[in-house]
Design a protein that fits this description.
Elements (H helix, E strand, L loop, with lengths): L6 H9 L2 H5 L3 H15 L8 H37 L22
């Protein structure tokens, strides 16, 4: 379990193009397209390298944040699926006990 990807997964990833892989992560594709627009100066409003750098850095920060949140969400879903697949694991059952009664009334 120490390996990050199985050999089959590695082979499957290697055969797919970047475009195919980005289809699975539309939020990442949008960020990359935004960075390309800055690099290409598509809006024509970036005249200095410092401004282009500032915009790229901001896009990278946002992208990193969104990517990590998505990664964490997928990991949580994976762990939940693994847990729910275990025999005897039933998290959807209602709790039957209302707790224990105190031994003395509060004043």
């Amino acid at each position: 379990m120490g390996e990050r990807f199985s050999e089959i997964e590695k082979a499957a990833i290697a055969k797919r193009s970047l475009e195919e892989r980005l289809k699975e992560y539309p939020e990442l594709k949008v960020k990359i397209e935004a960075m390309l627009s800055i690099i290409e100066n598509a809006d024509g409003d970036v005249e200095k390298a410092a401004e282009a750098e500032r915009r790229i850095i901001e896009e990278m920060r946002q992208m990193g944040n969104e990517v990590l949140h998505g990664w964490a969400r997928r990991q949580q879903e994976k762990k939940e699926e693994e847990y729910n697949a275990k025999p005897g694991a039933n998290r959807k059952e209602k709790k039957r006990s209302t707790g224990t009664h105190g031994s003395e009334k509060s004043k």
